[in-house]
Amino acid sequence: MAAAAVTLPSLCLAALTLLNFVFVFGTGAEFVRFLSFRAIYRNLTGGAPVCVDSVSWGQALRDQAVVRALCVDGGLVLLFALQHSALAWAPVKQACRAVLGVMNRAFYVFTTALALQVMMRCWRPVSGAPCLWSVSSAPWDTWLPLLCFVLHFVCWLVICSILLIFDYPELLGIKQVYYHCLGLGDPLAMKSPRAQRLYAHLRHPVFLELCAVLWAVPCLPPDRLLLAAGLTAYLGLGHSLDPQDCAYLGAQLHSKLRLFSEPQGSPSAGAPNHRQD
């Protein structure tokens, strides 16, 4: 049965999904570099300062180069927010599902990665204006970048762990294609109603960690301030958990901690679970 289901269209879908995964994974790695490495590496290696403290905010905002750069950066943040929200809007989502079918989720993450690529490649740093804050005196000019590096490392580690817990093949659209090729239906339909409700509300499961990465930097130039404020506001507006979702998350966390704390040979550790939660 499984061999008969693997047809040429199924192989094409699988190949497109694999290529999409490579593109999205590469974009994610580049996004880590864009948010963390670029903001901290300059301070750790003693690079040229990005802030001009001798210029006041009034003078900087009258500089056409600064204004143009901020307008471009603001437009890039807006472009990402529009893409991420428009394709998640129910009527647009239904239309995309009707046209793309099982590739709908993969198309969503592909356009998200494409929007991030445009933002990262077209981003214009602002170097002719003062920073909101900047640490330049010893010993904090060395210790603060190191502390930020450790915090960013921990936050990205937590983000990757959360993505693994939340079934990253399904988040990237891989599982939908795999189930379709084997005739297993929609993987989301196999989850419990409480899990489906949580997935409908939890737009951004890494809100706090991303906010820490955005704001915990040794210096905050105007373009970084615009990026951090824009993405924080967007992530906050898309966060719609209610008490039922929080109770479900707490129950799932408790059950997973209990599973890891019990011996491997105990009856409860090996109890079957026929429905995904």
Question: pLDDT below 50 for ≥5 consecutive residues: which ranges?
Answer: 1-5, 268-276
Helical region count?
A: 13
Report the C-alpha radius of gyration, rounded: 22 Å
Q: What overall form do the CA principal axes indicate?
A: globular
Alpha-beta classification: mainly alpha
What's the pLDDT, averaged over the residues?
79
Assess the beta-strand content as a share of residues: under 5%
Overall helicity: 55-70%
How many β-strand runs?
0
Structure description:
This protein is mostly helical. The chain contains 13 helices and no strands. α2 runs parallel beside α6, α2 runs antiparallel to α7 and α11 packs antiparallel against α12. It is globular, with a radius of gyration of 22 Å. The two termini are 28 Å apart. 19% of the residues are buried. The N terminus and C terminus are likely disordered.
How are the secondary structure elements laid out?
Layout: H1 2-5, H2 8-44, H3 57-61, H4 64-86, H5 90-100, H6 104-122, H7 140-165, H8 168-171, H9 174-181, H10 193-201, H11 207-215, H12 222-237, H13 243-261
Helix pairs in contact: 2-6, 2-7, 2-9, 4-6, 4-12, 7-11, 11-12
Describe the structure in brief.
The chain has 13 helices and no strands. It is mostly helical and 277 residues long.
Descriptive labels:
single chain, about 280 residues, mainly alpha, 13 helices, globular, disordered N terminus, disordered C terminus
